[in-house]
Amino acid sequence: MDTKKEHVNPFEMAMTQFDIAADKMKLEQWIRLKLRNPRLCLTVSIPVKMDDGTLKVFIGHRVQHNVVRGPAKGGIRYHPDVTLDEVKALAAWMTWKCAVVNLPFGGGKGGVTCDPKNMSLGELERMTRRYISEITSIIGPDQDIPAPDVYTNAQTMAWIMDTYSVFKGYTVPGVVTGKPISLGGSVGRDKATAQGCVYTIIEAAKYLKMKLQGATVVVQGYGNAGYNAAELLHKEGCKIIAVSDSQGGIMNTRGLDPVAVMTHKEKTGSVVGFKGADKISNEELLTLKCDILVPAALENVITKHNAAKIKARISAEAANGPTTPEADDILHQNNVFVIPDILANAGGVTVSYLEWVQNLERLSWTAEDVNKHLLRHMTNAFNEVVRTHEKYKVHMRTASNILAIGRVAEATKLRGIYP
């Protein structure tokens, strides 16, 4: 992204958010220490034979932050900027995300430092299979369940399931979620993050007494979550006035057709250059006057440097960690209603949970069944966070964390420390 990103250690940011909530809750010191520290961090070397015959060694991580409420759950991302601290932060956020929507999971995350845009399909497959072979001992349907994330997809999950199954000697569909339908994937998983985000936006609009019909929307990041959110909000009667990707953004105050923009992106590699739209930077896009802002790219894009310029009424975080703690306070003071990441983008992990349940029970649900469960989980979670927000008189991120941390803390107290 060409936004002015603040250099924030993501794990320190996650712990700052945790401490703010823990202070409000007056959380006991022993529980605070237990929940601050990841249960397990595994870093592995991944030797891969490249297409030209040379050998490259990639570095991969898998972190299990907390498993007190159930097996670790969290995606695997492939990106040049992956670090252990980033993966630790994402694993912690997954713990709170699963708890805020009341799923029987803990938080995990994985990542490989690589540039998938410059790798062939064969190189990606060999890297994936070697990475999974190195972490096989700590993953499994009752232990730690990966899923897609940045630059990984259903094909990646198919390779992971196959590699793990070969090691086990039998097919284990429940080891990952986000698989192809033909391998036990769930219908609705591809749009789940966006659909869950839109369900929370609908609830937020009701809470704020704001009409969605004609509401203006700006989407930063036009990947799976951003594009699907734009398309779903367009169907709700919203007007999409600007979108962006890593190459830059486009704007048309009369409205954009999300499907036509995606068709252009698939042909050219970027939304930039879409006919009838003006080019703008990602930084400019974030500060456009609009009703709904959907940050759906990477972390730390809304900081103390640009938060005061945000003019949206609602900021619905389809991305993980797009807003720094300092920016949260500024947005709150300026009456920007933030639907925080652990709530707004929990639709993905919720449908992952539904996929896991279907795999364990050898069932296959309809799209209607999946969406019914997703709607119930997201609306219940939103309303519970709002009640916490009103009770503690804190902004929505801290309210989400208080609700989630409270659930994990209760489970920790009941289980105690062994021996």
**Helical segment tally?**
14
General form: globular
Radius of gyration: 20 Å
Strand order of the largest sheet: 9-8-7-6-10-11-12
CATH architecture of the largest domain: 3-Layer(aba) Sandwich
| Proportion of strand residues | 15-25%
Structural class: alpha/beta
Query: What is the domain tally?
Result: 2
CATH superfamily of the largest domain: NAD(P)-binding Rossmann-like Domain
Order of helices and strands: HHEEEHEHEHHEHEEHEHEEHEHHHH
Helical amount: 40-55%
* Major sheet details: 7 strands, mixed
Query: Averaging pLDDT over every residue, what do you get?
Result: 95
Labels describing this entry:
single chain; 419 residues; alpha/beta; Rossmann fold; 2 domains; seven-stranded mixed beta sheet; five-stranded mixed beta sheet; 14 helices; 12 strands; 45% helix; disordered N terminus
What would you say this structure looks like, in words?
This protein has 14 helices and twelve strands. It has helices spanning 10-25, 29-36, 84-100, 121-135, 154-168, 192-207, 224-235, 258-268, 282-286, 325-333, 341-344, 347-361, 367-392, 396-415, and strands at residues 40-49, 55-66, 72-79, 106-113, 144-148, 216-220, 239-245, 248-251, 278-280, 292-295, 314-316, 337-339. The strands form two sheets. The protein has a seven-stranded mixed beta sheet, sandwiched between helices. The chain has a five-stranded mixed beta sheet with strand order 1-2-4-3-5. It starts with 9 loop residues before the first helix and ends with a helix. The relative contact order is 0.15. The model is unreliable at 1-5 (pLDDT under 50).
